Please model this.
Amino acid sequence: MKLRTRLALTLGVAAVSLLIIMGWAQSRWHSRMRVDALAEAAVHRMDSGGRARCEANPEGWPAHRRDREARRPPGPPGHRFPAHRLFAYDASFVSRNPASPAFPTELARQLDAGDDIAASRSEDHRRTEVAVRMPWQEGPCAVVLLRAKGPPRWFSAAVLLPAFVVALVVIVVALFAAGPIVRRVGQLTESVRKLGSDAEEPIEVDGHDEVAELGAAFEHSRQTIQAQLASLRDREAALRNYIANTTHDVMLPLSVLQGHLVSLQQRIEAGEPLDAMAIVPSIEESQYLGSLLHNLNAAARLESTEGLAHRDTIDLNRLVERVVDRHRPIASRRQIALEVAVPERPVEVQGDLTLLEQALSNLVQNAVRYNRAGGHVAVALRGDRSRWALDVIDDGPGIPEEDRGRVLQPSFRGSEARTRHPHGMGLGLHIVSDVAKRHGLTLVLDETENGGLTVTLRPGLDT
Amino acid sequence: MSDRILLVEDDAALGQQVVDALSRAGFEPDWVQDGDDARELEPDDYRLIVLDLMLPGTYGMDLLKRYRRKSEVPVLILSARDDTADKIRGLELGADDYVTKPFFPEELLARIQACLRRPNLSSTERLVVGAIVIDFERREVTASSGALSLTPVELEILSTLARRKGAAVTRDALVDAALDPAQDSSRRTLDVHISRLRNKLGEDAVQLETVWGIGYRLSEGP
Model:
């Protein structure tokens, strides 16, 4: 059921109930007043010559003529008694007048009990009877019985009709009065419904009542949901961007690799003599692909956290050997001497295994990748647990002194990390720099004696 | 002991490549593709186990725990994920080392060799490196040309290199072991001592290699 109808019907039912109760009370009060008025009429009529006429002619009084006088005897000025008929009886309730009805036993019982006035209301006969014992208490007119019409039934049209009219009015008024509230609730419903398609539009409800509060609560929820949506959208965009960039970055070396392989196939088909070195570029490109993916993974991890997600005890000796072993296949094919040395006792550090390994791998890969045939790369872990240093030394082209600071800038940028550096600036040096910083390590770029680059990692933030 | 190596790898292409590489390197590979089959095997029947962590049926870690309960055989993990927690857990559960995919067969072989080499580090009384024999008890060194007369510094340098035979040793480590690290001149003095040592080794001097950027290495010889 709609709010407006429910409200109107509730008010209507309440009004009808109230009016019926009031009608009933009023009818009770009326009938009581009627008894009093009839008793007063009896006394008045007997006092104003009625007694004398009655006692003079008890058989014939009162003569029930159909005249206005008898039916509506005049009362005091401005006062009219209810219409009635009057009969006279002696003290033992016997009338000399044969036209008088038998005295009602119920009234006789009441008078015998000592009352001066007795009344009975018969709703069935819609008749009120009042008996009054006169002060003189003797003679044929010692008791007077009055009969009048009424009282009306309490649920009669006289009571119910006004009740229903009032109820109708109440319902109509309620229907109109509920209008603004219903309209505002409807407005709120519409706004909330719109949330599904457009979370941008604010929910506004005027006023200071409960409907307005409900609106404000919805508006607060809308703003929260919108903020969450925005954050989700941002993350989705970042992810899409990351996937797009990654795809692009991977496609490039993959295209180069495919080019190498197709060229090899064509040369074989053309009967060209091929040596083992012909396949080296393809192998290098495939290794670059693997390294690129590892770097992208490292970049994503660095971008997602501030500090370190993992902090485990790491055996640096093993890590160094593992990284060098990873780059040996490329180094040997490019005829670059790749050497490694670790101390007799293991050097242990606290850190993120994957990040540290990727950082060192980047350093070694750069040293090998930008070197020439016959060149050297040495990876040496020196010292012990408290004072250690890790050198990656090469005799390649090096990095000009003015550029060294720039490649180690602390601000890490994922896009730069994934860029190929055609000028020998090094793949993923930003990652190395960031990983070093997060591990509290100092990264120093220096020139190797007789040319080349020496990169040193050591504990402590400043040298 | 046999050169049997157990490879537990579900990927057919990668498994075949590793098997080929192991065979070429002189090992006897035994390849199991299914984790459940791998559970039934006796780890002690092998010299080393190469275990892929991403196996269908059995999670590689469970297999590793099972093997470690039964045996001390070296286990090398193949990890497809760049997941630090996984690697650390593998090492904590007793794996000796891991190799992250993608890898070249040579890289895997190098790690296998390193795993197999590791246990025999200590032989304190006597060391043989090619033609050079060092007797630590008597502080005597013999080479192809016979007994050598070495200074304490030269003996210390040679012993340090011999203990890590085949591996490069940094100049710092040699200075720490044989000279006074506090003196600035020690690093240059080291070259002089090496030069003299080479002279005394005569034809075996080729075993004492200079390693670019690092220092020196005592190899088994040509």
Q: What stands out?
A: Chain B has a mean pLDDT of 87.
